[in-house]
Amino acid sequence: MELEVTIQRYLPEQSSEPFNQSYTVPYDTSTSVLDALTYIKEELDPTLSYRWSCRMAICGSCGIMLNGKPMLGCNVFLRDYVQTGMLIEPMAHFPVERDLIIDMESFLTHLEAVKPYLISKDSKESVQSFDPHNQTPRQLDKYQQFSSCINCGLCYSACPQFGLNPEFIGPAALTLAHRYNLDNRDAGQAERMPMINSEEGAWSCTFVGYCSEVCPKSVDPAAAVNQSKVTSATDLIFSLLGGRS
Amino acid sequence: MQQNKQLKRSDEPIWWGLFSAGGVCFAVFLPSIILFYGLLLPLELVILDYKQASQWFFGFWGLIFIGAVIIFPAFHSLHRIRHALYDVKFQQKTLIKWLTMGFAGLLSATSLLIWVIGS
Amino acid sequence: MSYRPTLTRTWWLKNTAFKVYMLRELTVLPLLFFLLCLVKGLYSLSQGAEAWYLWLAVMQNPLVMLINTLALLASLFHAWTFFQLFPRVMPLEFGGKKVSAPALVAGQWAGVLAVFALVAWLFWG
């Protein structure tokens, strides 16, 4: 069996505009889009560029737009696209470097900005203390759903608000912030709130909800972002009542 | 990039709070209110005469009605219009905020004023 | 050199999820029309019996009734979307256990029915 696969190419040394190119790829029931890209590069066109690593939906490297929907190439199969055909484009809302390679710099900066790590109550103590931080199943349950993010960035390609304003801190970063805020071992919420409280924080979100639809790990970033709005609104009330913000 | 910038607290929690309260009202109260006042009353399937209406609306329950059925839904409505305008790239954020929230405020103030005069 | 694709005004037409989103956002347009009708009605009521019955006549205009029918449908569609979002934005606990999302959605629809019963009782009771 063969399927025509169309790929949006971008070769900056040849042309300043992207263009579409079609390839005919043999497939069976287990051929993934990532397999198809590898076939094209090895057998048909060595100039094609794309990212990949694990082939099993855990590294989060092979994100693409497939017929307009953000997906991991390794997580989707040619057999399901016989009727509709296949158009593969680079992940939306990011600058494109070459073919399917996007520049993830802004995504990484946004992640870093929310301090996505445990901040201990006493920073000196945390360096010296190697005591285990025991956690009950209930304490774990509070944040566990939001801790499965693999940083693939698909939610940013699904988010029109990030597309409209790249300064928006975005679904994955806000979800990580929320994940650490919900962790009883963490004492860093006060440090994260200014980012969440800002216009580019939780308040750029309009609950389109598509981020949660495309998330390959069912993290539900839209829920995390909107729970952060509740946290942020509470934080505002406390600051107005004269408490520390 | 993000770290160097002075982060300003957004006033959006206020508008979002009003929007959410209005969202609950729009979902819970408005279906019945639209059905009775917007459809059954004009079709004369229910009756509301002037005296009855005037007593009820310019009393205590009328004030509750204005809050739950006009004021909160007005803020809900104009909050969504505000953000939908931004979505379709009318991005004069400050102007649109003043126009939409101002209009919601105006509708609210007008309703309250009519209630005060009427009661 | 990299290039950054920009969103056009019509980005929301390119995908079913975005169209449903925009439809949800636009439910407020017929709502706003209905609210304006109500404010006008309230004003007429304050102006005396004649103005009130004049307002009732305006509400019988087929175009007005058409938009208000749309408003009714919009309110139900809004309720359908809004009730689903609620358990995700504010997950509730009862007796140390999370309340299931379907239970919260059903509870909110029960609220809609309760309001219907109340208004029906006010008019017909």
From TrEMBL, chain A:
Residues 139-169 form the 4Fe-4S ferredoxin-type domain. Its EC number is 1.3.5.1. Its main location: membrane. It is a peripheral membrane protein. Keywords: 2Fe-2S, 3Fe-4S, 4Fe-4S, Cell inner membrane, Cell membrane, Electron transport, Iron, Iron-sulfur, Membrane, Metal-binding, Oxidoreductase, Transport, Tricarboxylic acid cycle. It is found in: Cell inner membrane. The keyword 4Fe-4S applies. It catalyses: a quinone + succinate = fumarate + a quinol; a menaquinone + succinate = a menaquinol + fumarate. Residues 1-94 form the 2Fe-2S ferredoxin-type domain. CDD domains: fer2. Belongs to the succinate dehydrogenase/fumarate reductase iron-sulfur protein family. This is Succinate dehydrogenase iron-sulfur subunit.
Automatic annotation (TrEMBL), chain B:
The keyword Membrane applies. The keyword Transmembrane applies. Keywords: Cell membrane, Membrane, Transmembrane, Transmembrane helix. It comes from the Bacteria. The chain crosses the membrane at residues 14-36, 56-75, 95-117. InterPro entries: Fumarate_red_D, SQR/QFR_C/D. This is Fumarate reductase subunit D. It comes from Marinospirillum insulare. The gene is frdD.
Automatic annotation (TrEMBL), chain C:
Signal peptide: none annotated. The chain crosses the membrane at residues 21-43, 63-83, 103-124. The keyword NAD does not apply. InterPro entries: Fumarate_red_C (IPR003510), SQR/QFR_C/D (IPR034804). Keywords: Cell membrane, Membrane, Transmembrane, Transmembrane helix. The keyword Cell membrane applies. Pfam families: Fumarate_red_C. This is Fumarate reductase subunit C. The lineage of its organism: Bacteria, Pseudomonadati, Pseudomonadota, Gammaproteobacteria, Oceanospirillales.
